[in-house]
Structures are given as structure tokens and as C-alpha cells.
Amino acid sequence: MTVLASLGLLLIRIVAGLTFAAHGTQKLFGWFGGQGIDKTAEGFESMGLKPGKTMAVLGGLGELAGGLLFALGFLMPLSAVIITITMLVAIFTAHAGKGYWNAQNGCEYNVHIIIVAIGVTLIGPGLYSIDYLLFS
């Protein structure tokens, strides 16, 4: 893999991974304008995800851990699975029946995150990743 391709993958991994992780901190800690765990739990309960607090913690941890692993390029297949499962749950609960576009609370963002996670994992994380350092 070339240096330029690896730099491109690094940029994608950092921005997508840290954005995803930040969504987790919104749920868990209320950072970046998020609601925090209690309000997130209430929202999850209202969507049928019970028990709400447990599901909110799992969702927040999935976003945080999956995003950080992805940004670091560490255990890429695992990070893609965590991200994909977390986003599929969001699609089938929070965004079900609302169409594709984000402006109507659809699944646009979620689909993009899934495709980026799977696509980068299939390509490989690049030279500037923990996986490359450990497994090459």
C-alpha cells in the first residue's frame, strides 16, 4: 500500500472513528451537547429498548469503543462489527419507517457509517495503524 493511500485511510479512520466515539460520549457522559446516560436511557425505553439504562450503556460503549478502535486502526474487523451492529440497532429502532434522509430522521448517517467501517476494514487500515504495526 502506498504512503498516500495510507494517509487517506488514516484521515478517514480518524474523522469517522472519533466522530463515532464522540456520539458514544454524548450518550454516556453528556459531552458535546449530548443528553447523558439517564436521558438516553429514557429515550431508549420509549423506543422499546429495555432495560433502557443497560441498553444506553451498551449503545454508548459500542460507539465509544468501536470508534476508538477504528480511529486507531486496531482490531479492524472487530471495530467494524461493533460499529455495524450498533448502527443496525439504531436503524431498526430510532430510524425505522422514517426513510433514508437524515433531515427526516432517516438512516442516512447510519448507513454511511456502516459502509465506511466495512469498506475501510476490507481495504485494510493502512500503514499508519496499530494493526499494521502489530500484524505485518
Topology of this structure?
Layout: H1 3-29, H2 36-46, H3 52-72, H4 76-93, H5 108-123, H6 130-135
Helix pairs in contact: 1-2, 1-3, 1-5, 2-3, 3-4, 4-5
Beta-strand share of residues: under 5%
Order of helices and strands: HHHHHH
Overall geometry comes to elongated
- Portion in helices: over 70%
Distance between the termini: 12 Å
Oligomer: single chain
**How many domain regions?**
1
Topology, number of strands: 0
SSE-based structural type: mainly alpha
Keywords: Cell membrane, Membrane, Transmembrane, Transmembrane helix
Pfam families: DoxX
Protein name: Oxidoreductase
Transmembrane segments: 68-97, 109-130
Index terms:
136 residues, transmembrane helix, elongated, single chain, mainly alpha, 0% strand
Describe the 3D structure:
The chain has 136 residues and is mainly alpha-helical. The protein has one domain (3-135). Helices cover 73% and strands 0% of the residues. The chain is built from six helices and no strands. The protein has helices at residues 3-29, 36-46, 52-72, 76-93, 108-123, 130-135. The longest helix has 27 residues, at 3-29. The two termini are 12 Å apart. The mean pLDDT is 97.
